[in-house]
Design a protein that fits this description.
By secondary structure, this protein is mainly β. It is 6% helix and 35% strand. It contains one helix and seven strands; from the N terminus they run αβββββββ. The N and C termini lie far apart (35 Å). Bound molecules: zinc ion (ZN).
């Protein structure tokens, strides 16, 4: 029997996103990078959102970034999320530029403590054999 999951999980299916999911399983945060304009982006897709090139490759992100925006959730709006509130919804701006939605963990969910612009780093949280998700914590 599997342990109860705290959140609904994605089903990695689309080929253009597989390097992202495979990287997370190996403890790497992989970002799509355009081979023509050299910009990174997120989420994974078949063409570059900056120049529309289809020459999309991958690079390993440092896992470091800053807290771009956040919200403290005092209750789950979706009953499928069973993370005990309060928890922190975070928009993280990676060092490489792209922003992604995640949770900020290992810090008290208190607006007097959580600060926009604070340095954060990725933490890999394995959900099952297929899915590992990137969460973030204050940079050590
Ligand atoms: Zn491009």
């Amino acid at each position: 029997m599997e342990t109860e999951l705290l959140r609904p999980l994605p089903t990695p299916m689309t080929p253009e996103a597989m390097p992202y999911w495979e990287g997370l399983r190996e403890g790497k945060l992989m970002l799509p990078k355009c081979d023509d304009c050299a910009k990174t982006f997120f989420f994974p897709r078949i063409s570059c959102p900056h120049c529309h090139s289809r020459n999309v490759g991958w690079m390993q992100a440092s896992g470091k970034g800053t807290l771009y925006s956040f919200q403290i959730a005092h209750r789950a709006l979706n009953p499928n999320f069973k993370i005990p509130p309060p928890y922190i919804l975070a928009m993280v701006e990676l060092e490489e530029g792209p922003r992604l939605m995640s949770n900020l963990i290992n810090i008290e969910a208190d607006p007097a403590i959580v600060k926009i612009g604070m340095a954060v780093e990725v933490v890999y949280e394995k959900q099952n054999d297929e899915v590992t998700i990137p969460l973030f914590q204050p940079a050590t």
